[in-house]
Amino acid sequence: MGFTDIRKLFPILDQKVNGHPLVYLDSAASAQKPIQVIKTLKHYYERDNANVHRGVHTLSSRATDAYEAARIKVSNFIHAKSEQEIIFTRGTTSSINLVASSYARKVCQEGDEIVISAMEHHSNLLPWQQVAKTTGAVLKYIPLQADGTFSIKDFEQKVTNRTKIVSVSHISNVLGIANPVKQMAAIAHKHGAAIMVDGAQSVPHIKVDVQELDCDFYAFSGHKMCGPTGIGVLYGKKELLEQMEPIEFGGEMIDHVDLHEASWKELPWKFEGGTPIIAGAIGLGVAIDFLEQIGLDVIEEHDKQLTRYVVERMKQIEHLTMYGPEKDRFGLVTFNLDKIHPHDLATVLDTLGVAIRAGHHCCQLLMKHFGASATARASFYLYNTEEDVNQFISALQKTKEYFKE
Ligand code: PMP
User: Per residue in 92-115, pLDDT tens?
Assistant: First the structure.
């Protein structure tokens, strides 16, 4: 199937916005859903909806089987050792908070270190600030270079035998580039530290093999990879997850309850207190089938190639600043045009049917590093085509003219 045919599987893209064909360039914030995922959700609520795990009736068995089958799909998709290492959460934010609250608060003592970078999304920054505040651990930042990236050497210098956890994004949601997480994992482990990887922007675009990376925890969100909103994943190595305490207590996660004590179910259910996000998980499983049918290597190449094309076209626009290094970007480019405020730019582009994002992208530290209060970001996914890029470039040029006048 070619990418033009793939696009046709996304009903939402077949519409006009403000009188123009929609050009959706905001997939880094949330991706669109193919018809298979939409139909799966509809079918689930029309035919199979019931609570999981505790019921013996047919609908409950169907819902349970589909929910647990989705877990196996996720496990295979990221090459985990077992589905016991896959915890369903609300998204990347919840997954990172789970590790921060359960693992990091337990292992960090006063004077221990947590190493992150100023490139991180707030979801991979604020949870560590909180751990540092409550435990007395020191939050250390890998210094950034002028282009917003960091070097592995600088990282290596930050990690010491007091480092308990390193947390870093696999692909930055502002720069679009990949960090060397495999090398970072090896360095962290040499010092006895664990490494958590924020995979919100990587899992949709590249093949991820958590065993090959040898990361201890890996987090991602379903909604950025053609799945429903409200579902996400925390992968964790079994031996670490087993040592961790749940952070939510209630139904579904218990084994036995007494007046003053209770014991937990085995992995992964001890971390899934309450009724889980059943339809979301099942929808995510179908999104994974869809991405795998196309092939992650094919998707990666498409997204990189399209981003190379847009970068080349943007270079020809005067007074346009792009942020980040001249390196392969995995499906997004962040920029500012002349002295136009990015919110104004995004508003005018919207009148031309082009949806981009403007703001700090939940990365205020990186914005500060660039001396920008805000930037614009165009992001691309498997349903975008060169025609989208052409319309985007033409809309940028029109906007520039508009502000000149
Ligand atoms: N990390 C990165 C790099 C992201 O791009 C995002 C989403 N913008 C998140 C974390 C948070 O994801 P979610 O809002 O789905 O929890």
Answer: 999 999 999 999 999 999 999 999
Per the annotation, the verdict on 215 as an active-site residue is: no
Mean pLDDT over 112-141 rounds to 98
The Å distance, Cα 61 to ligand 1 centre, comes to 33
Torsion-angle region of 203 (φ positive above 0: left; ψ -120 to 50: alpha; else: beta): alpha
Taking the model in full, what pTM does it have? 0.98
- 117 pocket-lining for ligand 1 (C-beta < 6 Å): no
Q: With a 6 A CB cut-off, is 91 part of the ligand 1 pocket? A: yes
Q: Provide the CA 123 distance to its chain's centre, in angstroms.
A: 10
Domain with CATH 3.90.1150.10 in the chain: 3-25+296-404
Query: If you average pLDDT over every residue of the chain, what do you get?
Result: 97
- E runs forming strands in 152-253: 163-169, 194-198, 217-221, 232-236
Inform me whether the pLDDT recorded for 272 exceeds 80.
yes
* Site to substitute for ligand 1 among 123, 172, 233, most atoms within 8 A of C-beta: 123
CATH of domain 3-25+296-404: 3.90.1150.10
Ligand 1 binding pocket includes 168 (Cβ within 6 Å): no
pLDDT reported for residue 405: 76
* Ligand 1 centroid – CA 59 distance (Å): 33
- Residue having the nearest C-alpha atom to atom 14 of ligand 1: 93
Closest to 31 (Cα-Cα) out of 240, 229, 306: 229
Q: pLDDT over 90 for what percent of the chain?
A: 97
Location of each CATH 3.40.640.10 domain in the chain: 38-293
pLDDT at residue 352, rounded to an integer:
97
Residue 55 has pLDDT above 90, yes or no: no
CATH topology of domain 38-293: Aspartate Aminotransferase; domain 2 (3.40.640)
Residue among 93, 170, 361, 379 whose CB has most ligand 1 atoms within 8 A, to mutate: 93
Q: Report whether the peptide linkage leading into residue 268 is cis, meaning its omega lies within 30 degrees of zero.
A: yes
101 lines ligand 1 (CB under 6 A): no
